[in-house]
Amino acid sequence: MIPNMKDVDMVSLSLDSSFKFDCHKGLSCFTKCCSNIDILLTPYDIVRLKNRLGMLSGLFLLNYTYIDIDEKTSHPFVFLKMADDKERKCPFVSEEGCTVYSDRPANCRYYPVGQASLKKMNEQLKIPYTEEFYFFVREDHCKGFQEDRDWTIRSWREDQEAALYDDINRPWKEILFRRNLPGNELDEKKQKAFYMVSYDIDRFRDFVFKSGFLDKFEVPDSLLERIQRDEIELLHFAFSYLKYILMMEETLKLKGRSS
Prior knowledge:
259 residues, 3-stranded antiparallel beta sheet, globular
């Protein structure tokens, strides 16, 4: 979910920051946060949703998403496609609430908390590191902050299972720190590769096992077994391949090339 900046409380929160909040059908604002919004989908969001709906990732992407190209990175980002009407409702919301609640995207899990990352430098060790921080999204219509249920950011993340999504998506988010440099913009071919590797996980699996990929790269049999049966392992392998093709890190080894 990309909040309107007027709704963002810019105070940076720690995992131990406390707040009161609750969301339930008895609130007059129930499901209003599911309309007129832009929900950025992560790779793991798509895995959970396409499996929930029982469809291949390509069909899910075709039916439920649209693409936006980021100007600073040339990365193609995928957003959930809202209804084409005045309210722009999420396709998965009903009067009873979210119809895919147990598989809802990470941004929906975090709400009304926002999460972001900053790349920083450890001045003592002279190495970069990533700092994750949190903030509140306080929309005028939301009555949840008037409820009396106590949370910390840590307990909220645990209750919403947001930490699981963060753990799986973190290697992909690290890639997003890449910026265009003169002569290093992503061309159309690399944008298509970024899209497939990040979002179309079923097509990426076919690419690995049904193209000439394994004739080109050395991949241990044990790893091949894991990525064949486990989509999370496949995602992590996809992120490694993405770093390789974006020339961020030599994560793969070509066959016939000595170490």
